[in-house]
Amino acid sequence: MIENIMLGLQGAFTPQNLLFEFLGVAIGIIFGALPGFSATMGVAVFVPFSYVLEPGAALLLLSGVYCGAIYGGSIPAVLIGIPGTPASVPTSLEGRELVKQGRSGEALALVTFSSAFGGFASSIALLLFAPLLAIVALKVGPPEQMMIAIFGLSVVSILSEGNMLKGLFVGFLTLLIATIGQDPMLGFPRFTFGNFQLTGGLETVSVLIGLFSLPEVFKMLEDTKQSEKASKVSKMRLSIKSILANSFNLIRSTIIGIVIGIIPAAGPDIASFLSYNEAKKASKHPEKFGNGSDEGIIASEAANNGVTGGSLIPLLTLSIPGSAPAAIFLGAMIIHGLRPGPLLFTQHASTVYTLLVGFAIVNIMIFFVGWAFCKFAGKILIIPKQILAVIIVVLATVGSFSIQQNMMDVVTMFVAGIVGYFMLKYDYPLSPVALALLLGPMLEEAITLTNTMYDNFFMIFTRPLTIVFASFIVFSLLWPVIKKNLFKRRASA
Amino acid sequence: MYKLTGNRVFLLFFGAIQIAFATQIAKIPDGASEYPLVLLICSSLLTIALFVKPQKEEISIGKENSLRILVFTILIGISLLLLTKIGYILSTILFLYSGLWFLKLKKGLLFYLFPIVLSLAMYFLFSRGLSVILPEGAWVSLNL
User: Fold this and answer.
1) Rounded to a whole number, what is the distance in Å from the CA of B143 to chain A's nearest CA?
2) What was the ipTM of the complex prediction?
3) Contact A61, A20 (CB under 8 A)
């Protein structure tokens, strides 16, 4: 093991590989920062570029793009309230409030530090625990996936605190809208109204771009005066006090990210929502969530970057990709003659350990490259509102078009934007839309497969992991009530 | 009789979507219809509950602001319609000039140069750098 790690250190620190790690991170950050461009798209676009490189360098370039894009998505989420990737939605909730308070620099510093920490810790987990943790992934079947999806959806109750009926309405309606297109079992086109372009369903990223970008533009038009606080970028400063106070939150969120990353089909978006939810539940100041909470940003960022290393664990050891970018990563590995599995670690030790060590370096680079990029990206805030409004529209349009190079996605984005504006106006929460769109297809498929597997539904509780996830759901739903009673007792004592 | 507030009109819009979905559900075969049916029932019940419950007072943003948002939305809509007619570059330049003029950006170097620079930069970044084939015009085509 030590020998292999030394081999990896030698490989990852060659000038050529360091250059590709740097390039990957820089490109990934730009990709993530552009609304509509996801980490998946970034990795996909750069797979052909990697053909000409040797396997180690190629995988490091793709790792840089992958990790950089997950981090980069949070920069526009903070600065202009548009999440570059769905995983940055919780960050945008807190980030834009911090920007309004004139704390944009602090928010970006927290995002950069938490992302680098989450990513670095996940790369250490990848390096040390890959074969061990892969055993858990082997035991996750449809019943467990169903429980994970329900657990994720239970977050709606937290995200809609004080507005539960509207939150549930948005959640159920979005789950219904997510059923547009072919059903997972029979392939029957549902609710397409004869429009073949709806057969594949609504493009989730387009809906999210519209929902989280156009309402911001319309709100800018409601108040054309430039906000003094928001127009100045505060100094990039990392608050050690805040980091120390949140050290437990940081570690817990990173662990959530790594575990979610290991579970197939549950990507960084689910991890960031779950972790945000857990941080809110555990917080001494839950009222700060949604009003510019440092805890919320740290939780979301550490978790979504924690997924990166976690998702490669089942990929490298069992050929099971834990996320969409990991699936593309698998394709790139096969192209380079590396077939994932237990033998990979012995037959291609040099390349694999170069990747594992390089993955940790990539996450350290994210801190420095990201810090520099944020200083530059912060200029977005001093752009006049008129310019910013039209830039957002142009980015949202080209971003939604580029997903599948399809005008239908642009129309989807536009309609979602208008609906999103009225949702904000009439006090409907937007976050349950993202959650239900991302988890809906996974939930339906898991329910259908579970029904096929068991005649008696309750037989799923003979599976230990199902019981574990079911307990998480019960705990998640009951925790707000328990916490309220605990606080009442403490207050009366 | 319920007073027709903005929120209730918004709920009626969703109600219409749910009715449209309900008309389709009978056409879906068994095995593919149960899950959406449950969701349709739940969401419809919640729509009714939100419709009948007492409404909060709504804050008006004023006629001027509403009109500004409406016109800007129409500008976006027109530019999207024109994307496939006059191509990405021209429709984006047109949207940027009309949008900045409508939002009263001071006419200076920024006003005149920004739309052209942004449209071309986005075009080259996406079409050349990222291999995205942006819409070409059916009426006029400007390919660089």
Assistant:
1) 16
2) 0.95
3) yes
